[in-house]
């Protein structure tokens, strides 16, 4: 049986290659665009956010995840000041975005 536990490091590295879609499909530059309409993008790729105080004990984990995303993508996060559109991170049953 060939499963992920039995795979060698080279195979795992290939599966995690960011240039492949679904692990084995190489897309050209045109096909890589997930959003075709600029109005659906955050301006300059910067996402204002708030973290509710009830998550203070795990906020370092949230910021660590944001840093990881920033290192791997062109997305940037910044604490919300007065932006109308932002992401609110809170303890709840679902993710929610304020528009």
From TrEMBL:
Cofactor (UniProt): Zn(2+)
Taxonomic superkingdom: Eukaryota
Transmembrane stretches, start-end: none
PROSITE patterns assigned to the protein according to its UniProt record, in alphabetical order: ASTACIN
Gene3D superfamilies for the chain: Collagenase (Catalytic Domain)
InterPro entries attached to this UniProt entry: MetalloPept_cat_dom_sf, Peptidase_M12A
Record GO terms (molecular function): metal ion binding; metalloendopeptidase activity
Domain named Peptidase M12A: residues: 33-99
Keywords (A to Z) from UniProt: Hydrolase, Metal-binding, Metalloprotease, Protease, Zinc
Record carries keyword Nucleotide-binding: no
GO BP terms, alphabetized: proteolysis
Keyword match RNA-binding: no
Protein name (Swiss-Prot/TrEMBL): Peptidase M12A domain-containing protein
Source organism of this protein record: Dinothrombium tinctorium
């Amino acid at each position: 049986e060939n499963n992920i536990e039995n795979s060698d490091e080279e195979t795992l590295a290939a599966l995690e290659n960011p240039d492949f879609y679904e692990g084995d499909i190489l897309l050209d530059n045109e096909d890589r665009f997930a959003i075709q309409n600029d109005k659906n993008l955050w301006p300059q790729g910067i996402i204002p956010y708030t973290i509710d105080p009830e998550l203070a004990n795990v906020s370092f984990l949230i910021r660590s995840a944001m840093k990881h995303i920033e290192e791997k993508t062109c997305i940037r996060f910044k604490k919300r000041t007065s932006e109308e559109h932002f992401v609110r991170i809170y303890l709840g049953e679902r993710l929610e975005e304020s528009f």
